[in-house]
From TrEMBL:
PROSITE patterns: IG_LIKE (PS50835). The keyword Disulfide bond applies. GO terms for biological process: cell-cell adhesion. This is Ig-like domain-containing protein. It comes from Aphis gossypii (Cotton aphid). GO terms for cellular component: cell-cell junction; plasma membrane. One of its GO terms (molecular function) is cell adhesion molecule binding. It holds the Pfam family Ig_3. Keywords: Disulfide bond, Glycoprotein, Immunoglobulin domain, Membrane. It is found in: Membrane.
Length: 428
């Protein structure tokens, strides 16, 4: 949200000078957001011996928590400036940090001691709760977020995540797959298990917060070749991704939700069938807006279309446009401006909002804001429309001979570029 602050000073002749300072907390001294987060909105003014000045933080971030905002007052009669301060108490949703002992990258072998640790950063503070495969973990967790395995076993393998309840809402970390390795002394038993697994198939469900990262791990056996990954498209066709033992996705988008398949072959001649593991990636989080173009240039008299895709899980419950300080809801029209009904997108959890303007004129130039909301969260995207004067009925302008030469040179250059492009296309 944005935050407006006002400083009021009594007395003083001539009028005192008022200045604003923002002091970060000790934990955010090097945060770049703190250096540009405070904006003074207007000059100081005085009326009836009262001086006033206001400042505004355009977008409050978690980095502003425990920061100090100070109003500094200087005057010719003061030896030392006066000041008054406020301390910012910023509420923010949980972010999760998962660590492991032994550290990530070290193989986990059966019977060793393993600890998982979940750290939750939120205000007000919230308590971490571990889950394994969306149910209670196999061992008790401590109050400080530790999950301790004294002697880890193979059945402890699975997807672990850390959850927390904060301000009447549930939040979750990305999933972490704990893979416990064990000795394979009986190769015939292993072959039998793999064949049965091949016949029955396997399916997992993974949940990740939008913007987070996730690693999908393929549970291939020791005799398996490198797995191949694919994603199921809208028409149930498989879109190949590539070969890898695991699939890592950084900064997850809503568009990346869906069904992923890990296809595993075998190096062993007795196992000729392919095994397919299905993993469902579920993306949760607040609303996000994706605009086709942030700036649109239209010619006067043309019909213009503004469009944006918005995604959220859970789905949004508020959608409206703001144009020239007028609120236009989907399915309604104001003058030449029509906000069309919301349509479904090709991506999961996503929809499309469209605004059209008939026969645009320069008066339609400006900002058009799309507002979408889910629960108590509102997000905004701005599209700037620039309308240029029409040149359709203007008389031709006489050009000088030097201009004609330049035009001819440009035409020749354009033809040469087109020929080069066609030649390159035919060559390939």
């Amino acid at each position: 949200m944005d935050l407006s602050i006002e400083c009021v000073v009594e007395g003083g002749n001539p009028m005192p000078s008022l200045h604003w300072l923002l002091f970060p907390s000790n934990s955010n001294i090097e945060n770049e957001a703190m250096s540009s987060g405070l904006l003074q909105s207007n000059e100081s003014y005085q009326e009836k011996d009262i001086s006033r000045s206001s400042a505004k933080i355009q977008r409050v971030l978690r980095a502003h928590h425990n920061a100090t905002v100070a109003c500094i007052v200087t005057h010719v009669t003061l030896v030392n400036p006066l000041n008054t301060t406020i301390l910012l108490d910023v509420q923010y949703t949980p972010s999760f940090g998962i660590s492991r002992i032994p550290g990530f990258g070290i193989p986990i072998k059966e019977s060793i001691s393993v600890s998982l640790k979940c750290d939750v950063d939120s205000n007000p503070p919230s308590t971490p709760v571990w889950q394994k495969d969306d149910s209670a973990p196999p061992v008790l967790q401590t109050d400080d977020g530790f999950l301790n395995f004294t002697s880890i076993r193979r059945n402890h393998s699975g997807w672990y995540k850390c959850t927390s309840r904060h301000l009447l809402s549930e939040y979750s970390s990305i999933g972490y797959f704990l893979n416990v390795r064990y000795d394979l002394n009986d190769l015939d038993t292993v072959r039998k298990e793999l064949i049965e697994e091949d016949n029955s198939g396997s399916s997992e469900s993974v949940e990740v917060t939008v913007g987070g990262e996730v690693q999908l791990e393929c549970p291939s056996g020791p005799s398996a070749a490198i797995p191949c990954w694919a994603k199921t498209g809208n028409d149930n066709d498989l879109q190949p991704i590539g070969p890898s033992s695991n699939l890592h996705i950084d900064q997850v988008l809503y568009q990346e939700a869906g069904e992923y398949k890990c296809i595993v072959g075998s190096k062993n001649e007795n196992l000729e069938k392919l095994r397919v593991y299905t993993l469902h990636l579920n993306v949760v989080g607040g609303p996000v807006i994706y605009t086709e173009n942030r700036t649109i240039v239209a010619h006067e008299g043309d019909d213009t279309r503004l469009s944006a895709e918005f995604c959220s899980n859970p789905m949004v419950n508020k959608v409206f446009w703001i144009a020239s300080d007028r609120v236009i809801r989907p399915g309604t029209a104001v003058g030449q401006i029509t906000a069309h009904n919301i349509t479904s997108s090709t991506s999961s959890y996503c929809q499309v909002a469209t605004l059209t303007i008939q026969s645009v004129t320069p008066i339609h130039s400006g900002e058009y804001n799309l507002i979408v909301g889910s629960g108590k969260t509102l997000v905004e995207a701005t599209v700037i429309l620039s309308v240029t004067k029409s040149t359709r009925n203007r008389e031709p302008v006489q050009t000088s001979s030097s201009h004609s030469v330049c035009s001819k040179m440009f035409d020749n250059y354009l033809i040469m570029c087109l020929v080069t492009s066609i030649f390159t296309h035919l060559k390939h």
